[in-house]
Design a protein that fits this description.
The chain is mainly beta and 122 residues long. Helices cover 13% and strands 38% of the residues. The chain has helices at residues 22-33, 84-87, and strands at residues 18-20, 40-47, 53-60, 68-72, 75-79, 90-96, 101-106, 112-113, 120-121. β4 (68-72) and β5 form a beta hairpin.
Length: 122
């Protein structure tokens, strides 16, 4: 029995690879306009910490052929293709606290974090 186009299930839309909050987009715009002009932020995942993985942010002059280009709120970041499966559906934010400021990630793929918050596992 063959499957016709009428009996095929429609494919559901995949979630975006990453999204940026307004605060993250604003901070990246400021960085891109100032000291990091002409460069792009690459987001990756590397083996580190007691839970196994950590987010790796680096400035690059150009995208690698394997980088995924994510544009949200008119701001572009690169995602290392090797990290994309770990990051699907992640939201990147920028938080300012009394003693620190930095980018944070809300990742639906995380199953847990270490006590210090520096690493995670999926």
């Amino acid at each position: 029995m063959s499957i016709t186009t009428e009996t095929k299930r429609p494919r559901r839309a995949l979630p975006p690879l990453m999204q940026l909050t307004d605060a993250a987009a604003e901070r990246l715009r400021a960085l891109y306009a100032a000291g990091e002009a002409g460069r792009l932020l690459r987001i990756g995942v590397k083996t580190k910490g007691c839970s196994g993985l950590s987010y790796d942010l680096s400035w690059v002059d150009a995208a690698e052929p394997t980088d995924e280009r994510v544009t949200d709120k008119e701001v572009t970041v690169l995602v290392d293709r090797k990290a994309s499966l770990f990051l699907i559906g992640t939201t990147m934010d920028y938080e300012q606290k009394a003693m620190s400021a930095g980018f944070t990630f809300t990742n639906p793929n995380e199953k847990g974090r270490c006590g210090c918050g520096e690493s995670f596992h999926v």
